[in-house]
Amino acid sequence: MTTKNKKRRESKSISLWNGVCVLALLIIGTAYVFQMSSVTQRGYQMRELELAVEDLELEGEQLKVNVAESTSLANVSERMKILGFTEPSEITYISGLDSVAIR
Question: How far is CA 89 from CA 73, 84, 92, 94, in A?
């Protein structure tokens, strides 16, 4: 009778360990799936941010071109004509030690 009890205990022990192992595998598998999902989500976020950076860099380059075009001599002289500026007929230079720019 004692051998039957031992076998039953061993059988229960083995089934308990099997249940623990299955539960551990389920927990590990679930954690793995959540981790992979998180990593994938971060990858998509990083790609979106990289695209935003590329767009901003392109916009910055376009703004630099616009500034260069706006400050070119041709555009400045054209705007001067539109605003009614004229060429000076006489230029007077101020010189002396009392000037603010001289140190």
Answer: 21, 15, 10, 17
- Does residue 79 sit within a domain? yes
Specify the amino acid at residue 91.
I
Asked if residue 39 belongs to a domain, the reply is yes
Quote the CA–CA distance of 86 and 80 in Å, as a whole number: 8
> What range does the domain containing 74 cover?
2-83
Q: Is the whole-model pTM more than 0.70?
A: no
pLDDT confidence bin for 64, thresholds 50/70/90: very high
Of all residues in the chain, the percent with pLDDT exceeding 90 is: 50
